[in-house]
Amino acid sequence: MNNSDSNSEQNDTSSELSSLKLALIAAAITTIGDGIATIAALTAIDEAKIAEKNDSKAQKDLDEKLLKMQRQIDRLSREMSKIKHMQLK
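User: That's the sequence. What structure does it adopt?
Assistant: Structure tokens below.
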């Protein structure tokens, strides 16, 4: 029985070592996954900043076009008023 007990203890020790190795591998994979998730989050933040900057520039361009159109409308209105006054004289 002494030999049987020794084999049983070796199997238990071997099994524990295998479990510890698997736990270490799982922890390493989890750490790598967390690193990838962090990189993905940083990339998403950068993309959001770029999109916001582009949206802001597009809005500024639209505002400038609208202002230019308003100035043209104002100028045309003044010209029409002048023509109208000229016709009344």
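Residues 2 and 17 are 23 Å apart (CA to CA).
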